[in-house]
Design goal:
Blueprint: H1 8-15, E1 37-38, E2 52-58, E3 61-66, E4 69-73, E5 81-83, E6 93-99, E7 104-111, E8 122-130, E9 136-140, E10 154-158, E11 161-165, E12 171-174, E13 182-183, E14 201-207, E15 210-215, E16 218-222, E17 230-232, E18 245-254, E19 257-265, E20 275-279, E21 287-289, E22 295-301, E23 304-309, E24 312-316, E25 324-325, E26 345-349, E27 352-357, E28 360-364, E29 372-374, E30 388-391, E31 409-415, E32 419-426, E33 432-442, E34 446-452, E35 465-473, E36 477-485
Antiparallel strand pairs: 1-9, 2-3, 3-4, 4-5, 6-7, 7-8, 8-9, 10-11, 11-12, 12-13, 14-15, 15-16, 16-17, 18-19, 19-20, 20-21, 22-23, 23-24, 24-25, 26-27, 27-28, 28-29, 30-31, 31-34, 32-33, 32-35, 35-36
Length: 487
């Protein structure tokens, strides 16, 4: 689920810096824009980003939340319509996405530009909804005295009531399409995000009228629309969840049996651990699996379950008792590799598995034997774009496209004929730094990319600065590009 934090301990230290909102259960609001904005029909027909945060399959349609907006495909990913702030969506990347027959809800986040004692912090961008299948969108601001550390990470709808889990903003509900909000604590205590980890909300689902809510203090269940709650934690059960931070919750139904799946991580108790927690009796007991894996989300295809983790994609055919890890994801058409072991999200239906992360959107229709990777990159040499460019740019050799022990930058280019490719990298003094490929065969014209890991010929990570690369296409010419290395 979303881009969750790798350093859990640091996240909880940051959580203690959240402003204390315990003085009231309901906070006043004013000045929120509620005018619907009509969608633009002349929108790009491709993904608008390579960073995939959310995937939702609904009635044959594919909805993709990225770090730059929302994309929708009605033809299985061949073309996309993209919605951004110009269409009424909030500023930032998609942090939560829910699609039902009657409403589409999108929340966003971004890095705060306000200086805090702990640096730039994630900030809620608000929420937008559409009740007419995306034709118009209505924006609703983030609820609370400050949006900093108040990010909506999940949204659910139950009987026309919108629920959203907003971390420092707590678990919130609205019965009037976001005009007013109420903070709901899943216990009998006043709202206290500083002192009560169970009030730091991260996930919420509604299944068969039952609300399941994941917080930093455990999992909560309500049978009566949030009036009363049952609390499950690592400490209060004999067969408990693995850890109290429940970043994702999902329901799987198979042959009249219900399985509740939770991606659970350790918090402050040294006995807790990251993994998957599964309940077959409504939460009263749990079995744990995938011990040690940092799980972000789940997908189901009948009896099959998939787990999207920081360490790759996993698949289970026996409801989590055993797992198989997918091999590296490589596009079977052009040989390009998915340059990340992290997968933020997944969705599955009728034999097709979709998976998304920091390096694009991938799908397989044969259980992972072959893959197709879709990216939002501009096509080199087309529609006014240069014949070659670097992506991402600036590039961090410690953060971008992390795969195993390296980060990677792509040198995108196109060919108009069969050719051989050579790519070399030079520093500002035009001294040779690295040879990426030498006389590599490209037997068919098309869009390609070569990958550089930011290291020199001595296998050392290069220093910050501007670097130039030379692309030689046999029979077509020489082309130059530039990349800034910055960390």
């Amino acid at each position: 689920m979303k881009r969750t934090y790798k350093n859990v301990a640091a996240f909880f230290i940051v959580a203690l810096a959240i402003a204390n909102w315990a003085t009231a259960q309901i906070l006043p609001k004013s000045g929120w824009p509620h005018q619907p904005k009509t969608a633009d029909t002349n929108l790009p027909t491709n993904l608008n980003s390579n960073v995939i945060e959310e995937i939702v399959l609904h009635r044959g349609e594919l909805w993709i939340g990225t770090d730059k907006g929302l994309s929708r495909s009605r033809d299985g990913g061949k073309t996309f319509v993209t919605y951004t702030t110009q269409n009424g969506l909030p500023r930032g990347g998609v942090s939560a996405l829910t699609v039902t027959d009657s409403i589409i809800l999108v929340a966003t986040d971004f890095d705060s530009l306000t200086k805090t004692d702990v640096g730039l912090q994630p900030t809620g961008g608000g929420m937008s909804y559409s009740t007419d299948d995306g034709q118009t969108w209505t924006f609703v601001g983030q609820f609370g005295p400050t949006p900093v550390q108040n990010v909506t990470y999940d949204i659910a709808v139950r009987e026309n009531v919108i629920w959203r889990a907003s971390w420092g903003g707590g678990l919130q509900r609205s019965a009037d399409l976001g005009q007013t909000w109420e903070i709901v604590t899943p216990d009998t205590f006043f709202f206290d995000p500083n002192g009560n980890f169970n009030h730091l909300a991260f996930s919420i689902i509604n299944v068969d009228g039952v609300l399941w809510h994941g917080a930093a203090g455990g999992i909560n269940k309500s049978l009566d629309g949030g009036m009363t709650w049952t609390h499950f934690s690592h400490q209060n059960q004999t067969q408990p969840i693995s850890g109290n931070w429940a970043v994702a919750i999902a329901q799987q139904k198979w042959r009249n049996r219900e399985y509740i799946w939770a991606a659970t991580r350790e918090t402050v108790d040294p006995n807790e651990f990251s993994g998957v927690s599964i309940s077959e009796d409504g939460g009263f007991s749990w079995r744990t699996t995938l011990t040690g894996e940092v799980v972000n989300n789940f997908a189901f295809d009948d009896s099959i379950v998939y787990a999207a983790t920081d360490n790759g994609l996993f698949k289970s055919l026996d409801f989590g008792r055993t797992w198989a890890k997918f091999p590296d994801v490589i596009d079977s058409e052009n040989g390009e590799r998915f340059l990340s072991t992290r997968f933020f999200t997944a969705a599955a239906s009728i034999g097709r598995l979709w998976a998304g992360g920091p390096d694009g959107l991938a799908y397989t229709e044969n259980g992972g034997l072959s893959w197709k990777i879709l990216r939002g990159s501009v096509k080199a040499g087309e529609n006014g774009a240069p014949r070659t460019y670097a992506y991402p740019n600036p590039f961090s050799p410690f953060r971008h496209n992390q795969f195993r022990d390296d980060s990677n930058v792509r040198f995108q280019y196109n060919t108009t004929r069969a050719t051989k490719v050579t790519v070399k990298v030079y520093n500002f003094a035009m001294e040779l730094v690295a040879e990426v490929v030498n006389q590599k065969d490209r037997s068919v014209a098309g869009q390609y990319a070569e990958v550089w890991n930011g290291r020199n010929r001595r296998d050392e990570v290069v220093a910050n600065g501007v670097y130039f690369y030379r692309l030689d296409l046999e029979g077509e010419g020489t082309f130059w590009g530039k990349v800034m290395v910055l960390d």
